[in-house]
Amino acid sequence: MDELRPPTLLALPSYLAGHVARIGRRELVSALEAHDLRLPHFAVLAGLSDFGPLAQHALADRLGLNRSHLVGYLDELERRELVGRERDPDDRRRQRVTLTEAGKTLTRELKAEASRSQDAFLAELSARERETLISLLRRVVVADDRARSGAGPGE
Q1: Is the separation of the CB atoms in 76 and 134 below 8 Å?
Q2: C-beta of residue 46 within 8 angstroms of C-beta of residue 113
Q3: Is residue 52 left, alpha or beta, with left meaning phi > 0 and alpha meaning psi from -120 to 50?
Q4: What is the mean pLDDT of each run of 10 residues along the chain (155 residues)?
Q5: Hey, which residues does 91 pair with through a beta bridge?
Q6: Alpha carbon distance 120, 108 (integer Å)
Q7: 148 CB-contact burial (10 Å; exposed 0-12 / middle 13-18 / buried 19+)
Q8: pTM for the whole thing?
């Protein structure tokens, strides 16, 4: 079957990456909706699981989320007793966010579901191809993070 999309677009990595992201996001969002969560909620839970307790502003920065939007996500997760907020012992003016035991349990389940959703959307690729794709995409993201932070290459 001939390609349905214009060859000009199919030659643009940014177009392809964006479209592939939408496909993968669709799978992941569907898995999260079963838990009445959205992608930013999962990002918060995953960030706290990976990095441990963080000051609220540091969590927003690491996730690339607007700090005021993060407050709303945290309010919902706290209401569901998945995260807790406490005064940061290093700076009493700040809030530190932690995962509760229920949050840790749910995050483990969500990570497994996220992995399954990614396997489903990348089923066309071999395991080796997936590793290559992830490695290449990660390099682009890390380079962008470095550029935005003002750090030089390899710093």
Answers
A1: no
A2: no
A3: left
A4: 82 93 91 94 97 94 93 97 91 90 97 93 95 95 87 63
A5: 88
A6: 19
A7: exposed
A8: 0.85
